[in-house]
Design goal:
Elements: E1 2-6, H1 9-26, E2 31-34, H2 41-52, E3 62-65, E4 67-69, H3 80-87, E5 99-100, H4 109-122, E6 128-131, E7 153-156, H5 159-165, E8 178-181, H6 184-188, E9 192-197, H7 203-211, E10 229-234, H8 235-240
Parallel strand pairs: 1-10, 2-3, 2-6, 3-5, 6-9, 9-10
Antiparallel strand pairs: 4-8, 7-8
Helix pairs in contact: 1-2
Bound molecules: fructose -6-phosphate (F6R).
Length: about 250
Amino acid sequence: MNIKVVDHSAEMAVEAAKIMMEIMKTEEAPVLGLATGGTPETTYRELVKAANEGQVSFKNTTTFNLDEYVGLPASDQNSYRYYMEDRLFNHVDIDRENTHIPDGMAEDIDAEIKAYEEKIKNAGGIDLQLLGIGTNGHIGFNEPGTPFNTRTHVIALDESTREANARYFASIDEVPTHAITMGIESILEAKKILLLISGAKKGQALAEVLYGTIREDVPATALRNHPDVTMIVDQEAYAAAKVPGEEDVHA
Ligand code: F6R
């Protein structure tokens, strides 16, 4: 794993956007795996800026998002479709047909899940998967205990995840209880992975990714089984990462 420590999230965004644009410039038909949440917001802003300055075009890019809440329509401000339109798609020259997010309103969720996997396969797989990480070590919405061999599936969200995401909703009761997420096996099939970790709250999760035993209780430890992971970590997260049994990672 490559790890790059940056001072703050603005620098993280610049570095992450650079890596994503590199793929968009070198691949004829780039396929990006995208994440939502607070962490990648500045990265999307950076990509929009670059696209508006003519540094990069999304014309030939296809995207697949990691996850979507079950029960929220695209028009709901908390749906991940809405997030992506608002943060990225509305501001760049991407063809909407090439943007894919699981449909949390699908009548037949099983068919939706199968179709999603099929679409990724037909696109030739994901060139670069962008990831954030939950404080509990989740990637996508693969919560602790998810078997490493899962593919796209429906998951019951952990209470800690619902609490963390309640900041976007009027109350925790409005946070959906389930989501569709790409599975760990599906995520690990991406050719490259770019993991962003920001803030002291993520220190423990970072320490697990770097030093923890690879285990299903901490889904992100599965990333150590992938040959091409780049992590961009801010100082706050890095300083808060403690090696089990030691003072800190810098000792
Ligand atoms: C979002 C996703 C999640 C988030 C994680 C961190 O699509 O898959 O795994 O990356 O919950 O969220 P933030 O960045 O809000 O701390």
